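Subject: sequence -> C-alpha cells, single chain

Hey, anyone have a minute? Need the predicted structure for the following. Not urgent.
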Amino acid sequence: MSKGAEHLVEVRNLRKHFHLGRNSVLKAVDDISFSIGKGSTLGLVGESGCGKTTAGRVIVRLYEPTDGTVLFDGRDISRMGGRALRELRKRSQMIFQNPYTSLNSRMTVGDVVSEGIDIHGLYRGSERTDRIYELLGLVGLNKEHASRFPHEFSGGQRQRIGIARALAVEPEFIVCDEPISALDVSIQSQVINLLIGLQDRFNLAYLFISHDLKMVKHVSDQVAVMYLGGIVEIAPSNELYQHPVHPYTRGLLSAAVSPDPKAERGKERNILQGEVPSPINPPDCCRFEKRCPAVQPICREARPDLKPIADGHMVACHLV
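Reply:
Had a minute. Here:
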C-alpha cells in the first residue's frame, strides 16, 4: 500500500465455492489474501473466469463467503447484521461492468442516483434534490438529466450515472468491476480519469477489476494477478510491470499490446499454450503446471504458497 497507511479492507484466505450438484463444486475463489489501504487502489487482473468478479462481490457481501475472512475497517463482514450491515452497505459500494443492464430502465436518472440516499435517509426535500444535482455534476452530467431515463443515454453516460449512484451514500471503498470494458475506446480514458479524480477528491479506496493490463498499471498502486481462483503474484504496480516473476504474469504482460510500434517490434513474446483447467475440478498441484513453459516435477506434486521475494512482492511458484 502506497497511499493508505491503514488497512481498510483485509482479505484472508477467502474462498467462494458454488455447489452445482450432488458432487459438483465450482471453486470460483479458492484461498486468496490481500489488503487495500485507505485512499489506495488494488488492481485485480486475470483471464475471464478466473474469479475476479466473484471476489469483488464477496468483499462487498453481495455473495456470502464459503470460508475465510473479509475485514472492513477491522471488522469481519460475515458476522455483520442489522445496523452494522446497513453501515457496511453505506461505506462500500460497487460499480458494475455493464451500464446497459445495471440501471433500472423504469426509473429516472434522479431516482437511480437517489435510491441509496433514500434507503439510508441521508437527505430529504430540497436538500435531496440539490444532492442529486451535485452528484450528476461530479460525474460530468447536467441537472436536466435527472428527469430522463437510462435508455436515453450513451454507454459512457450510463456508466457515469452508475458512478454517481455509488458516490451517493458517500462510501470509503468502491469495487470497480471492469467499469470500462463495455465502453468505446474513445470513452474509456474519460471514465478512468473521472475515477482517479474522484479518488483524489474523496480519498476513496478502489478494488479495480480488469483484464486490461495497461489500464490497471495506470490506476493502481498495487496489482494482484489471479489464475483459476487463486492469486499467483502480487506486487506494487511498477515492480510488477518491470520485474514480473510468475510465468503466468509474464505471459499476460507479453500479450498486452503497446501503443508504441517500436516497442512492439523489439518485444520478447512469451505466448501461453494450452487451455485453462476447469474450476469445477482444478488440480491439487500448481494450477498453472499444464501451461507453464518451465514446469518441474514438484509443480505436479503440491500447490505452491504465496511467499515474499522482495518488499511487497509475493509469488506463488515452486521455481522462485
